[in-house]
Amino acid sequence: MLKVEGLVKKYKDLEVLKGISFEVEKGSVYGFLGRNGAGKTTTMNILTGLIDFNKGNIAYNGKDFKENKRGILRLIGYVPQEPVFYGYMSAYEYLAFMGELSGMSINSIRLRSEEVLDIVGLREAAKRKVGGYSGGMKQRFAIAVSLFNSPEMLFLDEPTSALDPEGRMEILKLINDLKQQGMTIFFSTHILNDIERVCNQLSILEAGNIVISSDLRSLKDKYIKPIYDIELEGGVKELAERLQGLPWIQKVMIENSKIAVYVKDIEISKQELIKIVAESGCNVISFNLRKSDLEDIFIRLVNHNENI
Question: pLDDT per residue over 52-89, tens digit each?
Fold first, then answer.
């Protein structure tokens, strides 16, 4: 649906984007992950037509972005990192204002307003002034505004970064609901847990470069290796030496009375590792399978070290 190739953006001598490439499939929630300052908002501003770029190509449904910019922009919705409204208006009034700018009839405006407010769960608060909404409500209303013209694709720039836990959960649930309805969503964030909750594809951006682009499952299969943490009373070195040469074990690391066992095959390790530890005769203080997550992958990739 969206294809970006060799995208470069410079501000005088500062190269913010250094030839990034990625592709967003129709119906996916695409996570664009990176630390603050990595270039996420610059990319978002380019893809939504707010700023130009120096080199590269952008295609939307096979059409060149620059040549068909006006038509493409009618097909996308955008929620900036800090959405701004006329706070003295109610939700109904603001959406009516949007509809009038689009040349819609009064009846069409009314029907569409009810639809988008139902989608974001703000129907009961529609007569209240937007300026009195909570942070989570304002973000949901911003999504309602972005959906008003029935876009094919929605761009969300750090939609949960300034919210409390309850507000974050509201937005993530809404994103999941839109995903179930087939909406294509480009979701920029630095919050790794949010990516894991809602995205099925992602790119990791670091200092203006794409470190990796992948679907989430393949990324986890490649980089998340099972690790057993074993703490013993004595015999640590002897057990580590015994484990080291086994074909289903990737590596063994020792730290004081603890052994970290990185395994290649989780199924074999479940059956064999506990047997070997028991046969060693060592007194076991703890035996745990470490729960790895996307944060482990992110740290490895941005530090260019896959073996952390």
Answer: 999 999 999 999 999 999 999 999 999 998 888 999 99
Beta bridge partners of residue 153, listed in sequence order: 76, 184
- The two tokens of residue 178 are 């839109």
Predicted TM-score (pTM) of the model is 0.77
**29-34/184-189 β-pairing:** parallel
User: Between β-strands 227-233 and 258-263, what pairing exists: parallel, antiparallel or unpaired?
Assistant: antiparallel
DSSP letters for 155-224: EEESTTTT--HHHHHHHHHHHHHHHHTT-EEEEEES-HHHHHHH-SEEEEEETTEEEEEEEHHHHHHHH-
CA-closest candidate to residue 61, choices 71, 51, 52, 53 = 71
CA-based nearest residue to 48, from 24, 20, 82, 72: 72
Q: How many CA atoms lie within 13 A of 60 on its CB side?
A: 21
Q: How many CB atoms lie within 10 A of CB 168?
A: 21
Chain position carrying tokens 């978002």: 44
Q: What is the pLDDT of residues 8-32, one digit of tens each?
A: 999 988 999 999 999 999 999 999 9
Report whether 83 contacts 136 (CB < 8 A): no
Question: What one-letter code names the amino acid at 193?
Answer: N
Query: With contact defined as beta carbons under 8 Å apart, do 47 and 2 qualify?
Result: yes
The two tokens of residue 163 are 């919210």
Amino acid at position 227, single letter:
I
b/e code 30-40 from CB counts within 10 Å (16+ = b)? bbbbbeeebbb
The answer to whether the CB of 185 falls within 8 A of the CB of 179 is yes
The residues, ordered by sequence, that sit 6+ positions from 153 with a Cβ below 8 Å of its Cβ are 1, 2, 24, 60, 75, 76, 77, 183, 184, 185, 186
